[in-house]
């Protein structure tokens, strides 16, 4: 916490996953150097430790987001994101995906709740994307949260190229279609709109001598 936050009784709001549904996404730009602090036990103010006796640690990142609390006129959009061990894996993978060395000031981070209720025995699960300060942040980091029904990192599958025809596979060249010329006295626009079979029928009929019956 900033000294003035403590003095004035304010402080940056923390992301609350419990109050938001699966699919809720936090997106923002990192404004301060990430910090490390010890976790507290579930539903307690008591510090938590691993069975080995080592303290359980988490990372705290301050993000500048587009979120605002309408009930708080002083809300500047900054949100404190706590990254516990369970969230570290997807965040780490997101950082490695763009070839970055870690979370940096100016980087863009997006974290989405993908499952879990947050109660004991059913922890939250998360997905993440990261854009280093010099890297295009990508789809979710443009400022729009993904819908709850869609996985955060889902990308559209590339469309397969159309399979070659049997003639193409055998190296056979298909003859180009030959346009049937418009007969004299007919509107070229209406002629072009006619099906090819009808054009051929009319052309054949008009080419016959006058003493022979037409085919239709």
What is the structure about, briefly put?
19% of the residues lie in helices and 19% in strands.
Question: Could you explain the architecture of this structure?
Answer:
The structure is a single chain. The protein contains 5 helices and 7 strands; from the N terminus they run H-E-E-E-E-E-H-E-E-H-H-H. The chain has 2 domains: 3-142, OB fold (Dihydrolipoamide Acetyltransferase, E2P), CATH 2.40.50; 177-207, no CATH class. The protein has 216 residues and is α+β, with helices and mostly antiparallel strands. Residues 135-140, 142-160 and 169-174 have low confidence and may be disordered. Helix content is 19%, strand content 19%. The protein has helices spanning 3-8, 85-97, 166-169, 188-193, 196-207, and strands at residues 13-14, 25-30, 35-38, 57-64, 78-83, 108-115, 125-131. Strands 1, 2, 3, 4, 5, 6 and 7 form a 7-stranded mixed sheet that branches.
Count of strand segments: 7
Question: How is the CATH topology of the largest domain named?
Answer: OB fold (Dihydrolipoamide Acetyltransferase, E2P)
How far apart are the first and last residues' alpha carbons, in Å?
A: 91 Å
Helix count, DSSP H or I runs of 4 or more residues? 5
Overall helicity:
10-25%
Low-pLDDT segments, ≥5 res: 135-140, 142-160, 169-174
Helix/strand/pairing category: alpha+beta
Shape: elongated
The helix/strand series, from N terminus to C terminus, equals: HEEEEEHEEHHH
- Domain module tally: 2
Quickly give the CATH architecture of the largest domain.
Beta Barrel
